[in-house]
Amino acid sequence: MATPDIRGDKPAAVASWEPIVGAIGPKVREVRQLLGLSLQQLAARSEVSAAAIHKVERGDMVPTITTLLKLSAALGRPIGFFVDDADWAGPVGVHVRAAERPPAPIDWAPEATGVGATAIASAGERLRASGVWAEIEPGGTSGDGRSVRSGEELVLVVKGVLAVDIAGERYRLEAGDSLHFPADRPHSWHNPGPDTTTAVWWLLRG
User: Fold this and answer.
1) What is the distance between the alpha carbons of residues 128 and 77, in angstroms, rounded to a whole number?
2) Is residue 188 part of a domain?
3) pLDDT score recorded for residue 84
4) Can you tell me the distance from the alpha carbon of 199 to that of 201, in angstroms, rounded to the nearest whole number?
5) Is 76 within the bounds of a domain?
6) In terms of C-beta density within 10 A (0-12 exposed, 13-18 middle, 19 or more buried), how is residue 27 classed?
7) 16, 18, 154, 163: which could form a disulfide with 202 (CB 3.0–4.6 Å)?
8) 122 lies in which domain range?
9) Helices (H), 4-136
10) Is the pLDDT of residue 198 over 60?
11) Keywords in UniProt for this one (predicted)?
């Protein structure tokens, strides 16, 4: 009975994993740069030294499972993102032309009246934040329901005025004003002015 050539099988098995292991570092670097983090900032978030992260990104060191878990948590990505053998084939940036904006996310302000809104950014597998451009007519409102969702919201008034209520706290935003708040607090808004208000929302899901 012939003895299997184990030595002949091993290199092929190892080779099949090499592209996956080799892609971990570039993926870490890509997400870190997308989030605008320096090596030192990611080190502070992940409790992994900046030197070790630098080695991982350069491919000089294969991270342990513990290190990869820490990095994936700090970067807000599932660990499977870094070990998936599917390469990202799309562009780094997402360009949304003004004339081609999709509708605003359905859960942004589902009961809004007197509001025209489009998405300027959409959350996906690679990017977690989304954005909304809204034109709010005089008297336009988010509706009777008070939105509650996980994450954060940032609203910037470009033109006009916007009255915002967050868990009983009332704010009046004028052109150039912004308001940043946790989205899990009940909140609503309306346009109390005589003119159309233009506002931009930035949404980060929890």
Assistant:
1) 9
2) yes
3) 74
4) 7
5) yes
6) buried
7) 154
8) 98-205
9) 6-34, 39-46, 50-58, 65-75, 79-83
10) yes
11) DNA-binding
